[in-house]
Amino acid sequence: MIRRGLIGPLVGLMAAAAVTASCSGVPSSSSPQVIGSGVGAPTSGPQPSDTPQPGAEARKIVQGFLRANIGEPNDPRGAREFLTPDEQRKWSDRTVTILSGSVQDAQVSAATGSVPAMVTVTGTRIGTLGADGTYLPVPAASGGGGQAWSYSYALDVIDGQWRIKDALDGLVVYAADFAQTYKPVKLYFYDLAEQHLVPDLRYTAVTSPQAVASWQLAQLLDGPRSQLDSAVRTEWQNQSASVPPSVTVSAGPLVSVELPGSSHLESDTKVRLATELMATLAQSQSQTVMQITDGGAVIDVPGIPQQFTTADISAATGLLGSPLPLPAFYIDGGRLLSANGKPVDGPIGAGTRYLTSVAVAARRSDDYYVAATTGTGSAQAFWIGRAGSGLRKAKVPIGPLTRPSWAPGLREAWVGDGPNLYRVDMSGNKVAVPTGLLGGRITAVRLSPEGSRVAMIVAEPGGTSQLWVGAVVRSGSVRVDSAQPVTPPSYTLTDVAWNDDVTLYVIGRDATHAYGIWAANVDGSITTGGASLQSRSRSGLPQAPDSIAAAPGVSQWVSAGGNVFELKSDWEGPNNHTTPGTKPVYLE
Q1: pLDDT tens, 357-372?
Q2: Residue 507: partners with Cβ closer than 8 Å, 6 or more residues away
Q3: Which helix (H) or strand (E) is 107 found in, with range?
Q4: Average pLDDT over residues 84-105
Q5: Could you give the CA distance from residue 115 to residue 187 in angstroms, rounded to a whole number?
Q6: Which strand (E) or helix (H) includes residue 82?
Q7: What is the 3-state secondary structure (H, E, C) of 500-532?
Q8: Secondary structure class of 195 (helix, strand, coil)
Q9: Which of 566, 564, 560 minimizes the C-alpha distance to 580?
Q10: Of 149, 193, 291, 329, which one has the fewest beta carbons inside 10 Å?
Q11: Most distant CA atoms of the chain, gap in Å
Q12: Distance from first CA to last CA of the chain, Å, rounded?
């Protein structure tokens, strides 16, 4: 059984198209250039040390095998040469176990025993990569990231040379090498309301444009990661678990996607199909021109040229356009001020309510929707309304409330209250949102730019606070699905903001209690530095920040020590002036 997203309706049509093509004499497409392993191919060829050296002792063979794992799975001189012939036939490179550190620092024991010899590798397992390129962080067993890991490789003698006869199924790659070799790509699926595109972050080691495009198309056909199954458009079809060979993509100045049966889809489905394909396949080339073919004939997509660009998709759907710079706001003296320091129009700019945190949204007008809290500590109240007409007190219990967050495109704001998460409508009515959290206190809440995910800082009784990310499901009752921690428990985090649809910024303190600002990926995957958190600049800040704001295409803001700061080359006050204020936010 294969899971398919929007492209699911094509499955039944593909079989019919294949029969039609065979009868009508329409030329069939070439086989797809899809990578054999879901995790891709090497970025560079093997080095001499990546092949077994004659007379190498058992320990050296295992060390070489680990180095060669970086170059798998499509390197014919790679890791398999370190295996016995029988193990070469059985071993699979479709998944990846990710250990902390670098392969240069691999902990490999001396060989024990005679024949077979045993060589044990130990380390800290911090993540895994599935055959479809989805990263899953490994929950920490203690204060640090990951869990203790070990595997004992059995080696036999083949033609006078040590070879591994029992290898762990799947690749073993160290974090630093993973960060250099595996590159992030995004698949895009429509949300259930068909209003936004939802990103699905994957990793692959392929590098050529053709290989990347083929791999992306195969994963798009296979559907979203399990966490998003209930949050995006998806259909299940009783089909074989392989991509039909007649489905192909050619990368180049003109990206041509051959999808048998696509000409028979409903008009609105064709538009969504073209949008998903363009969003997924045009990430590396902003000027991509694309066409969709069925049996070699270009199909008509209503409202879109047969050969279309991102601009054509944007004009037809309102999606994929460049994001407009969003205005920033902050609080000073209980009043809501715009980034230029002027109070916004209406009661909330005049200080009628002494605001302590705020979320601001607009629906095609300057009369902002505003959700806010008043009070401090466990005596905070929640308010909601319009900037021009004022706020009404919501039916949210007085408590230790988080800063609110607006659901994109909807007239509802979300807020955390201890272990509870609520969504609140414009009338002030609240509805509890199940999160699946087994404990802890929610201290920060932020919905993603497209509203498909929610980020939460969850404080545990032991004093640590982690970033959790879950899928927002709106089929039936609204709930948070598959929430998981994506930062190590050794950090104590206090606030979070979405920098784009797959990257978040967090603030807090690390294991040494030093304050910091870090970037994190939505799935907890490894950043450029080989860790799940990448440190960002603190230069110019007088002390630890207490709040952070971010948005796509604009600079970050923080508040620290009663002033607000904007990140330019360093952190500095707006317009290079010391500016009193707290809790900066961007328009949502």
Answers
A1: 999 998 666 789 999 9
A2: 493, 494, 495, 496, 515, 516, 517, 518, 544, 545, 546, 547, 548, 558
A3: strand 107-108
A4: 93
A5: 48
A6: none
A7: CCCEEEEEEECCCCCEEEEEEECCCCCCCCCCC
A8: coil
A9: 564
A10: 193
A11: 86
A12: 39
Closest CA to 317 of 495, 190, 467: 190
Q: How far is residue 455 from each of residues 167, 181, 421, 467, 500, measured CA to CA in Å?
A: 38, 28, 12, 7, 13
The pLDDT, as a whole number, for residue 27 is: 27
Check residues 580 and 526 and name the one with the higher pLDDT: 580
Residue 294 main-chain phi, psi, to 5 deg: -135, 110
Give the pLDDT mean for 286-305.
94
* Angle subtended at Cα 301 by Cα 297 and Cα 302, rounded to the nearest 5 degrees: 145
DSSP state of 344: P
In this prediction, residue 46 carries a pLDDT of: 39
Q: Which helix (H) or strand (E) holds 20?
A: helix 10-24
Cis peptide before 305 (omega within 30 of 0): no
In the prediction, which pLDDT does 33 show?
A: 43
**Contact status, residue 84 vs residue 78, Cβ threshold 8 Å:** no
Say whether pLDDT at 563 is over 90: yes
Q: Which amino acid is residue 555, in one-letter code?
A: S
Would strands 254-258 and 183-190 be described as parallel, antiparallel, or unpaired? unpaired
Question: 């005679």: which residue's tokens?
Answer: 114
Per-residue pLDDT, 123: 94
What pLDDT, on a 0 to 100 scale, did the predictor assign at position 38? Answer: 42
Is pLDDT of 550 > 70? yes
Distance CA 425, CA 188 (A): 29
CA dist., res. 360 & res. 383, Å (int): 12
Q: What does the alpha-carbon distance between residue 141 and residue 468 come to, in Å, rounded to a whole number?
A: 17
* Cβ-contact 533, 527 below 8 angstroms: yes
Both tokens of 168, joined, read 């762990």
d(CA 417, CA 378): 9
What are φ and ψ of residue 166, in 5° steps?
-145, 90
- Mean pLDDT for the chain overall: 87
- Give the least confident one: 2-16, 28-42, 247-261: 28-42
